[in-house]
Structures are given as C-alpha cells and as structure tokens.
C-alpha cells in the first residue's frame, strides 16, 4: 500500500462551517503550484535539494552490506556519537524497525545483532553511566558529524576514544571506530585519513536534518541488520510521487501548502504530528527537528526580516489522548494535527474475557487491541472535527523499511516545498550557528 494523505478535515465545510480553511483554496493553491513546483525543480537542478537523490545509492548499499558482513561476530554493541540530525534519524530507525526494548533482548533473540546506544548530549552523567554499562572490548563506535567539528560530538569522541584505548590499546581502538563525516574536510575526516579509520561520507549537498537516508542513518541501520535497500526504495517512491504536476495529486506538496496556509490565514502556528503507533514515537521527534530548523527563519529569501516558522510538536496516540489532546480539542484554535495511521495492526492481540468482568467492560472481550487503538484514532479525529479543529491523516500499510523510507522522504520533500510556500531558505540554520559561536566564546572564558 502506498502512502495515502487525507486532508478533508483541514477545510471548514467538513468542520463547523466557521473554523478551518476556505474550500476556495483548493483552486487558489492549485493555480499557484505550477510556479512553486518550477522553483523546486530549478533549485533541485542547482543542487539545493540534494536529499531528493538519496533513493538511488547502489554503491553505498553494496559497500555497507559488505562492511556489515566483515563485522559479523565482532561486536555486541553499537555506540553512536552525534547530535541533532546525526542522532534523531538513527533513533527513529531503531524505534520503527526493531522490536520494542531491543537492547533488553538477549543476544540469542537478537541473532547476534548488536544493541544500539546513542549519546546525543554532553551531559556527563549520561556519558559516564553509558560507558560504565558497555563493554569497550565488544563495542563499535560510530562518530557522526557532517562538519567534522561539532563541539558536542568531538567532546564525546575524545572521552570515548580514551575509554577504548584503556581497554584494548591505541592500535586496536581504531578497529572499534567508524566515522561518518564530510568526504574531504573537517577534523574527523583528517583523523580518519591519518589513522586509517573506516569512514563513510555525508554528501556535501545534504544537510544534517535531511541526512537520515545517507550514511548518517544507513551505517547504524546496516550494523543492526535493517533492510537498507528497501528503506531507499521507499524513499525513491516518495520522490516519484512528489513529482506530480497537479497539486491535488502531489501529497507532499499539498501537505506543505495546507500547513503553511493554516498558519498564514488561520494563525495555526503549532503543527502537531501524532502517530497512532509506538513504533513511530521517535519518528515524531525526528520530524520536530526537520520542520523547526528548516522553517524557523529570521529573514525571507530576499533578506527581509520576517521571523517566520511554525512550532512543531510530537505526540503519540493513544497515550497523549490522556495529556495533550485536552489542549488540542479545547484550547486555542492555533494548531493543526497530522495523524499517522498504521493499517496492518487492526486485528492484532484479541482481548480475552473473564468471568468476573464488570458489565460496563463487556464491550472489550473479543475485540482486538489493534481495533481499540484504531477506534481511539477515529474518535479523537471526530472530537477535533466537531470542535472545528483542523486535522489531516497519513495512512501507512505497515511499518517496515520500505514504508518508513517513504514516510521520511515524504516529510523531507514536504519540507522542501514548504520552504517555497513560506518564502524562506529551508536548508540553512543561522540561529543554530550563532549558538555554536557563542558556545566557543563561553568555553574560552575563565571558569569554564
């Protein structure tokens, strides 16, 4: 089943006739889409949309598969050092494509596939306790930084390198390292080159938050024996779908247009993504960085001060029906909700009956837990609709490598289109860079 997008409940004629988007926008946005699509095509040809080509990487897939074979039996743990886009993608892949609590399964149940631990911060307690838990003699360390100079990741690397060398010696420690970074420049590239450490490239034309389908995400995916070819095939399918010339047939572009229009005309400044699947909880976190860092900009593309951008929020159904949904339904009319529905779990895990079951719970036995989860989604969507709250729904046939690759690329392409609708550059992050500069200055002061 391909990805299906339903935007019916974004429009006021399907809501309460007061709130929501004007149905006339179907034609208005459709008429403008030719220019939007043409600009995306021009900028893709100019190299700005490098992530669009990531569905086709046969040489990298072959190399990763061969390298993965060479690691067989050598490591019990994979430790990833990275931050932001260098960690969020791998977390989303693990959450979606491996069984829950993967690291708690025995080596036998994991068929010898390593556990995965990510260090995505420099909190010393977290780093210290992680290194106390892992056996350095059986740990492979993947150091990820596109620039090769990310302060947090380099600090992690220096601590972890010392940890490895104390356990296995300086020479052997190099065999426990794999570096993912720029192909030519940066401190990590120099280290990999000088010490002959295995390294994989981050394409220079792909930004960190768009990099999950590069070696940034694919190296951990390969080590954990995920189907990286299927992941990329799903991404390629999403790119093909996003090439449709009519907005009505181009789900990624339409999603971007409606989210932008909801903010521009209805003050919907908060964009919630709410999968009804625990397997997509970390995907929602990955989305938050993608949407926030790409669209939150001080200036527009002409350099004029604009201070644009939505605030993305992650939620998980049905869990957050008991926390955030009260706000979504009864709070300000400043949100859009994007539900993600997984279709293949509806009949899973039939709920048994018991003789002492109270009469008011008699509706549960014989139903499946998957059906209950699906009913919760429909009920939440209807509750929002009845109160004039805008929502849309993405439907996935299942959560596997193909469909996850398709979903990730859908949102990346939507982000690229949204940059045009919002009239901002979705590929820079001057606010983040300012923070880095000030961190360097602070670390140089006395007392740090």
Number of domains: 2
What composes the largest sheet? 5 strands, mixed
CATH superfamily of the largest domain: Glucose-6-phosphate isomerase like protein, domain 1
Backbone shape? globular
- Give me the side-by-side strand order of the main sheet: 1-12-11-7-10
Following the backbone from N to C, one meets helices and strands in this order, namely EHHEHEHEHHEHEHHHEHEEEHEHEHH
Identify the notable features of this structure and list them briefly:
448 residues; 14% strand; 15 helices; globular; Rossmann fold; five-stranded parallel sheet
Give a description of the structure.
There is one protein chain. With 448 residues, this protein is an alpha/beta fold. The protein has 2 domains: 4-46 and 232-432, Rossmann fold, CATH 3.40.50.10490; 51-228, Rossmann fold (3-Layer(aba) Sandwich), CATH 3.40.50. Helix content is 45%, strand content 14%. It has 15 helices and 12 strands. The radius of gyration is 23 Å and the shape is globular. The mean pLDDT is 94.
